[in-house]
Automatic annotation (TrEMBL), chains A, B:
It catalyses: diphosphate + H2O = 2 phosphate + H(+). It comes from Amphiprion ocellaris. One of its GO terms (cellular component) is nucleus. It holds the Pfam family Hydrolase_like. Its main location: cytoplasm. InterPro entries: HAD-like_sf (IPR036412), HAD-SF_hydro_IA (IPR006439), HAD-SF_hydro_IIA (IPR006357), HAD_sf (IPR023214), LHPP/HDHD2 (IPR006355). It is an enzyme of class 3 (hydrolase). Phosphatase that hydrolyzes imidodiphosphate, 3-phosphohistidine and 6-phospholysine. Has broad substrate specificity and can also hydrolyze inorganic diphosphate, but with lower efficiency. Belongs to the HAD-like hydrolase superfamily. This is Phospholysine phosphohistidine inorganic pyrophosphate phosphatase. It is found in: Cytoplasm; Nucleus.
Length: 256, 256
């Protein structure tokens, strides 16, 4: 698969030799399959067909996203409405991984996340919090909400901050939007700490997807629009990484 | 002057020898003279008397603040209502310094500041902005406002970000509040740039106060509650720096 003129194009020839060992593909979603925005957003031309053809191939396929504005179920339902043949079990977002970490380390979170994500944490004990989790809260990143998260952290003897991703910004249909990473940096600076990132580009996160496919890292290819979190993160784990020129990709000299 | 039990106490004896060369004192304001909060906030016990006695002494006295929630005039009026004998010409906040920089470099700002500060920029051309200025906007640091500042910056060929101070947090009567520095870090990360700080601890800023007093740095003492921006900044310029234990100072093992 390669990209031409901002669209997905299936390549029938010209694949490099390394493609012969390829057994699985991991796709980023926002900016690769669709652009988020008003309503469900819009599918990127060629991407529905690309997913269909990958599913018909011998390659395993998974979807790896830092989406944290909705539960996995609601998020997948949106993709299905846009026309994608995707099921929830194929999709790996940060929230379920975060819940596993909380359980493993007996942590009770203060949440600064989008209202749409809250149901994922319904079964989680949030009383007397001993850590903070931030996601892509977007308009919920008010001064008051960020200050509240700060006060929880600065009041802890051993402050623990989890960030569901570390992206700088993403593209919606009406322009660029600040992502969770900038608020992670804000709280890191305020509290003199280093956040633990759950989601891309965390090696643990990529490894959980590889485990689910039963593949070694060199057998998998990651395709995304974020050079650092998709391509770099994947390469850091030993996977191949490919950047598409859709989504947040900015053509040279382009101003958004 | 030294601090005891969280209050200002004038010291009549026991000053170190270096005090003999002292010709001027620069006082931080919030956390040293008063705690901000509901209404005008509250004067810190002993501070009104300390300012009075300093004025009666042979020492020159200036006030150096990173306050950016109000114009200098309104800010000084508040201090006067609290009982301080302070006039506007003795007070050095970042906004007038920023306006001088804009003029010097022919820059037109996009402002992300507190509504109370806007009148300071009344005479400044803000059309077709080619830089961004952020101040302690507090509740005006909404997601939408921060995103708007981000879009201006990322759309500039040579993005320039001025931050009116770089504080992490300050203390108000109802608790700790995030300061402009955390939003500076957020935009620095989002746009891959380094902000220019106007205000403490910028050496240029301290130098302008020394110039106004007609003193060399070794002849002046800075007193503040912020170890980095008051004490460290002053020492970096060759001044003496003293930290009070009021304001944001946190006693060992104290949780706010």
């Amino acid at each position: 698969m390669r990209m031409r003129s901002g669209h997905f194009v299936m390549a029938d020839e010209g694949w490099p030799g390394c493609a012969k060992s390829l057994k699985g593909v991991i796709l980023d979603m926002c900016g690769v399959l669709y652009d988020s925005g008003e309503g469900d957003g819009v599918a990127i031309p060629g991407s529905i067909e690309a997913v269909r053809r990958l599913k018909e191939s011998d390659l395993q396929l998974r979807f790896c996203t830092n989406e944290t504005q909705a539960t996995r179920e609601k998020f997948v339902a949106k993709l299905q409405r846009l026309g994608f043949d995707i099921s929830a079990s194929e999709v790996f977002p940060p929230a379920p991984a975060a819940i596993a970490v909380l359980k493993d380390r007996s942590l009770r979170p203060h949440l600064l996340v989008h209202d749409g994500l809250l149901p994922e944490f319904d079964g989680v004990d949030k009383t007397n919090p001993n850590c903070v989790i931030i996601g892509d809260a977007a308009e919920y990143f008010s001064y008051q909400n960020l200050n509240e998260a700060f006060r929880v952290l600065i009041g802890l003897e051993k402050p623990v901050l989890f960030s569901l991703g570390q992206g700088k910004y993403y593209k919606e249909t009406d322009g660029l939007k600040l992502d969770v990473g900038v608020y992670m940096k804000a709280l890191e600076y305020a509290c003199d700490l280093k956040a633990e990132v759950i989601g891309k580009p965390s090696p643990t996160f990529f490894q959980s997807v590889l485990n689910d496919m039963g593949l070694q890292s060199h057998e998998a290819l990651m395709i995304g629009d974020d050079l650092l979190n998709d391509v770099g993160g994947a390469q850091h784990c030993g996977m191949k990484g490919v950047q598409v020129r859709t989504g947040k990709y900015r053509w040279p000299k382009e101003t958004p």
